[in-house]
Amino acid sequence: MRSTISGIIGLSFSFSVGVLLLSLGCALYHNWWPAFVVIFYILAPIPYTLARRYSETSYSGSNCGLEVALFLTSVLVISAYGLVLVLAHHETIKRGALWLLIGADTVMFSTILAYFILFNDEDDFSY
User: Fold this and answer.
1) d(Cα 9, Cα 3) in Å, to the nearest integer?
2) Closest CA to 71 of 61, 59, 79, 60
3) Distance of CA 21 to CAs 80, 88, 94, 103, Å?
4) pTM for this one?
5) Using one digit for the tens of pLDDT, what is the confidence trace for 100-124?
């Protein structure tokens, strides 16, 4: 119970740091185009969550659904970094905003990963 509460506090702190970096990257340079990265923050955990929910628990071999979900999740994570890099390449955002947004991406995706690591317990409920 105590580790769960400290995990939730740590996740909320790292989430707030990520949102702060994203907000600073947008507000300091008066350009809100990078805020579209939030779409990737929302979409990234969905494939893995669905695959964990609907996959059977066979430990004998690979699970195709889970591997496809991990691939889609990695595509979404890389796309978030790619969007920021493309915006910087086309000089839509400045270099300072680029570094703040890369930091925000790293913190936010690390928070999502930490959530899945901390709360990876399987439900004991069965029919």
Assistant:
1) 10
2) 79
3) 15, 16, 15, 7
4) 0.87
5) 999 999 999 999 999 999 887 655 5
